[in-house]
Every structure is written in structure tokens, then in C-alpha cells.
Amino acid sequence: MIVIVGAGCVGLAAALAVARRGRDVCVLERHPRAGQETSTHNSGVIHAGLYHPPDSLKTRLCHEGRERIYSFCREHGVPVLACGKLIVAREGEDAQIDELLASAIANGARVEAVDAPFIRAREPHVAATRGVWSPDTGWIEAEAYVRTLQSEVQRLGGAILVGTSLVAIETRPAGLAVVTERETIDAEIVINAAGLYADEVSKRAGGDPFRIYPCRGEYAELAPRARHLVRGLVYPVPHYSGHGLGVHLTRTANGAVWIGPTIRYQDDRADYERDRLPIEAFLEPTRALLPDVTIDDLRLGGSGIRAKLHPPSQRFADFLIGPDSRVPGLIHAAGIDSPGLTASLAIGEMISGIIS
Q1: CATH topology for the 85-135+213-308 domain
Q2: What residues does each domain of the chain span?
Q3: Which helix (H) or strand (E) holds 215?
Q4: What is the pTM assigned to this prediction?
Q5: N or C terminus of the chain with fewer C-beta within 10 Å?
Q6: Is the pLDDT of residue 80 over 90?
Q7: CB within 8 A of 267, min separation 6: which ones?
């Protein structure tokens, strides 16, 4: 039996890859339903692999996962938009847009340098002097994706135990024993895909020490009367001295326009609401892209928490995917922040390959 801790998109994608190879698989999820944390509290963007180091797992698995996720959505009817995105620069940001373009080309991404007329033709209300066009970027309805992954795992005979919290992982002569509140499950392999709690799962198993840093992102939305101002995905040029990709605009399949996310490190892994930013905090970053927006055009949206492997003093940490060095049979898929949704099916295949 392969036991997976965590029924987010990565845990479910790993379960699907394992089940497709005819292995018995069981997924534990402490929440009442799958995907209630990071998997469905994000922008839903399918990334093209523009930003991270070219030799990183984040870049490689983003490229592999993007094609897999588009194909999966077409096959199973998951709402998806292959709409492309614009990354736009204002006066004084030429160096940043040149750096982004060079990084994207080094990563093997399909990109094009574009001028102000190109931007106006695609996004007539966006203010920019130059930009980068990424035709392979898109958007997915994350909740529908999670539901479909779950259905496919179950169709192939996999078990998904929601409302089931992990108590301990014990090493025994015949393998590992996964202890829950209700039962003990004998496991040949345990996959740690516990997201914000992956470090705690490793600690309970006596595995490698690492730390997850919770990082909250908050969103606003455009009011219905202002949604016509955005046609697709619009990002500011990233400033690499900070964290994240900047507050961006995401038009969804139902026509809503999300603004965000912001980024703030915090200690609490489950605090989505305390000290939320006021709506006024979103006005300036929105007007940097859409000058015509007023405060009356904005509404507060949701929030999400990323599971990062690096503190705020550092800029980058790669995914942690591989066998634990201390506990035979324990495999980690940890620190899966962006582009984790895009890469999820590729991560699942990688984990299945490690098992094999």
C-alpha cells in the first residue's frame, strides 16, 4: 500500500500516477474535503516557466506539467483558458523587462517582446510602454481540477479518507505504519504531500528536518461594472529584490477579475483573515496597471497561504521532492509553492518514478 498524506493537487496527482500503475493507494486528508488549503486558494494561473532558475525543479516541472495539465483539462472537461498573459513595464522599468525576457528565453519559454501598440490591442485599458507576451500561460478552475483528480483516483480504485488526521508514522520491520485517529495503516511507501504541514509530518516520522514558512496572499476583485477593463492575464514586471510576482490581474472563466495576491510572511498556518488589508491597499497597485480604476471599482476578495521553504531574508528555494535520508520509504513533496498547481501532474509522475 502507498499512503499519501495530503489531498491537495500534488497529493492527488501523485495518487493518480501511482494508481495508473496498478498500485494500491490511500490518501489521508484532515479536512472534510480535498484541496481546501493552498490548492484552491491561489490565482489558478497555469504558468509558462518564465521566472525561476533554468536548472531548477520549478522550471523543469512547470514546463512538463503545463502540457500535462492542459491535456488533462481537455480530456476531462475541467474549465481552462489558454489565454496567454502580458507582463508589462512602465517608464523606468526597461532594465527589469529586459532581465525578465532574458530569463524566460534561458528557461526555454515561448515569449515575445512587445510594444505599446501590441499591448493596447490586447488590453486597451492597461498602461504600459513595453511588455513581454507569454502565449502558453493560462488559467484553470482549481476547485474543478481537484474534484476531477479525486474522481479519477477513486475510479482507479484509490481510497481518499477525508476528515482523517495523521497522528504518527512509525518505522517497523516490514515497512511503515501510518497511525490515524481511527486506525493504523501498513504502508510500503509514505508520500508527504502535506503542504503547509509537511515539515510537521516529517518530524512525526523522525525524518529530515526542514521548515515551512507560511506566507499569506490576499486578493481584491473588480466590481462587475469594471470587469470590462481586463480581457486576460496582466502582470507587472517583477522586481527581483522582493518576493512574488507582484499584484496582478486575473480574468477567470466566469468573467470575474481578481487582483493580487499580496505577500506577507506570518507564523500562523491557518490564519486567513486576521489583520486583512483594507481595500485601499489595492488601489495603487491596481492603478499602476489600470489608471482608470477608482476605489469604488474594488471589492475585497479571498486569501490564501503559500507553503514556502525559504524565510523572507532569501529569495528562492526549489521544490523539495525526493526520498527522506533518515526514514526508508518516506518520500517528500514539500515546499510546493508557485508553480505547484501547474507542475502538479509532473510532480506526481516524478514521485511515481521514484517509487518504481
Answers
A1: D-Amino Acid Oxidase; Chain A, domain 2 (3.30.9)
A2: 2-65+142-211+315-355, 85-135+213-308
A3: strand 213-222
A4: 0.96
A5: C
A6: yes
A7: 214
